[in-house]
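HUMAN: Forgive my ignorance: could you write out one protein's sequence and backbone structure tokens?

ASSISTANT:
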Amino acid sequence: MLILTRKIDEAIRLGEDIRIVLVQIKGGQVRLGIECPPHVRVLREELYEAVRRENLNALSADPAHIQALPKGIKSSSKQIESK
């Protein structure tokens, strides 16, 4: 892990197109500003972990539950393709 010291309004660059700025220090917290291209997803780590867990749960879905889905839901993609 790289550890850097920054003062308010000082920045860190990641590659050519990502800039992280120390915006504010208040009590035990810091506020960071992140400038990056729109295609780069920026998430707080706890939200990233929650999304990752949900994705893993979806991948491990019980096939019996999928078979139990109403027929209209399962065949809706075929209906769209035939239009």
